[in-house]
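Methods, example record. To illustrate the input and output format used throughout this study, we show the complete record for 4-hydroxy-tetrahydrodipicolinate reductase. The sequence lines were provided to the predictor; the line carrying C-alpha cells was produced by it.
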Amino acid sequence: MQELPGIVITGASGRMGQMLIKTVSDSDKVRLVGAVEREGHDWVGRDVGEAMGGAALGVTVTDQPLEAFAKAQAVIDFTAPAATIAFAKLAAQARAVHVIGTTGMTDQDIAQLEPCGRHAVIVRAGNMSLGVNLLTKLTQQVAAALDEDFDIEIIEAHHRHKVDAPSGTALMLGEAAAEGRGVDLKDVTDSGRDGITGARKRGDIGFTAIRGGDIIGEHDVMFACDGEQIILRHKATDRSLFAKGALKAAIWGQGQKPGEYDMFDVLGL
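The corresponding predicted structure is encoded as:
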C-alpha cells in the first residue's frame, strides 16, 4: 500500500502551527513527519507533542528546515514573509508542495516565490477557508454587477495579537472587488482614515480593520449606495477551519505540475 504523504509544519509553536500539528496528527490521510522552529527556540530538540503539553507524537522539533523538508511531500507554512520566502526556496529544493497561509506579504515578497514555482508546487492564499473563497467569488460577481454608485467597504476584525492590517483575507476580497470592476486595487484603495479626510472618492474601495480580544476572523463586504446596502459576511468561529483547508491544499498538490496555485484551484471554483 502506498505510504501516506508526509507533512512538515513550520512555526510549530505558534497558534496556527499548533493547530496544524493537531489537524495533521488527527488525519488518516497524511503523516506528520516534521516540525520546524527558529534557531534557539526552546522547543528545538523536544518531541512536538510533549512541547504542546500533550502526548509524544514521535516527531522532534528541528531548526534545520531543509533536512525536515527532504523527508516530506508537503510543507504547510503560516509564518512571516521573510521566513516564508526562505522556506519556499528550500521546499523547491526538496520538491515538496509548499502550502502558504502567511499574510502580510508584499508584491515584492510574492515575486520572489516565482522561481520556486518552477520547481515545485506552491499553493498560496490569503485564506484557506472554503467559505471565504466562496465569499471572494461572490464579491467579484456583485462588484461586476453594480456600478460606482455603490461604495465598497471591507470591514475585518481579528484578535489583538494580529500584526498586519488589512488582513490578507481583506486584501483578497479587495482584489476580487477591484477585478469585478475592472480596476487596479492600488489605484482605488481607501484606508487609514483619520482626521478631516474629506468626502469619500467615488469608486474607491475602503478598508476598515478592527483588532481586539480573541476574535478569530470576521469579514464583511459592504456595497452601499443612497437608500440601500448589500452586505456579504463570513465569520470564523474555529481556527481549525484554516488548518483543514491548508491540509486539503497539501493533499491536492500531490501529483500537480510545478507552478503557483491558489485555493480556487484546490476547490475547483
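Annotations derived from this record:
The CA atoms of residues 103 and 168 lie 5 Å apart.
The mean pLDDT is 95.
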